[in-house]
Amino acid sequence: METEVWPEPLPLAQVVVRPARAEDVQAIFETIGYWAGQGKMLVRPMQNIFENLRDFFVAEIDGQFAGCGALHILWGDIAEVRGLAVRPEVQAKGVGKEIVTACEAEARRLGIPTLFAWTYSVRFFERCGFRLIDKSKELHPRVWSECLRCPFFVGCNENGVVKRLHGVPEPLNLPEPPPTQVPPGIR
Fold first, then answer.
1. How confident is the model over 136-147, as pLDDT tens digits?
2. Half-sphere exposure (CA, 13 Å, Cβ side) for 126?
3. For residue range 7-41, what is the model confidence (pLDDT) as tens digits?
4. Dihedral angle at the C-alpha atoms of 131, 135, 140, 144, nearest 10 degrees?
5. Tens of pLDDT along 61-85?
6. How crowded is residue 115: how many other Cβ atoms within 10 Å of its Cβ?
7. Closest to 14 (Cα-Cα) out of 94, 73, 106
8. C-alpha dist (Å) from residue 124 to 3, 43, 48, 117, 137
9. What is the pTM of this model?
10. Cα–Cα dist 183/147, whole Å
11. How far apart are CA 68 and CA 19, in angstroms?
12. Which residues contact 81 (CB under 8 A, 6 or more apart)?
């Protein structure tokens, strides 16, 4: 297996977050793959990144890729922050928070009042205004439908976090989400 080689650390400047483009997919794939290899997040196949490219944001510092994250709509009242990955040399410099802020702004624009994330980094999300939930009791049914595709569906050890966006009302006339399967031992 080849060792990942990262460029020299970026000098810190202003973080710019923008919608992802096709030319960003390789950097998104490599950054997520790096952290997945460390056991810090789930791997995302390149095809999945292309298929969901509209969900992704990219953070740049001085025009160089610094990180990525996506807002994936689960239902009319909830969206997941996923694929949040920051290059190692700019960790703890506000890049991840800026990406989460962009996801939150997009959820507000769409009228989606609740954000959700699966994470091993609870403290980071708490600093972004999320709260840890009991995944055995407090999950929206649509979250579990996404979990069915995960190789860790049974035995999941990620933590669920939620943020209610103040000032964003619950959408009117939403249909009930379809029933979904939940992992053994939940509910």
1. 666 666 666 666
2. 8
3. 555 444 689 999 999 999 999 999 999 999 998 88
4. 130
5. 999 999 999 999 988 999 999 999 9
6. 25
7. 94
8. 27, 20, 25, 11, 22
9. 0.83
10. 9
11. 10
12. 69, 70, 71, 100, 103, 115, 116, 117
Q: Is the dihedral of CA 139, 67, 52, 37 positive or negative?
A: negative
* Nearest-10 Cα torsion for 59, 106, 53, 176: 150
Tokens of 146: 């996404």
pLDDT score of 5 more than 80: no
Q: Tell me, letter by letter, the H, E, C secondary structure of 61-90.
A: ECCEEEEEEEEEEEECCEEEEEEEEECHHH
* List of domains in the chain: 15-164 (3.40.630.30)
**Residues forming a β-bridge with 119:** 159
Measured distance CA(80)–CA(171) in Å, rounded = 17
| Number of neighbours of residue 36 by Cβ within 10 angstroms | 14
Structure tokens, 36: 């997945």
* pLDDT for 102 beyond 80: yes
Cα dihedral 3→29→118→65 (10° resolution): 90
Separation CA 99–CA 102 (nearest Å): 5
pLDDT at residue 10 in the model:
46
Contact 50, 44 (CB under 8 A): no
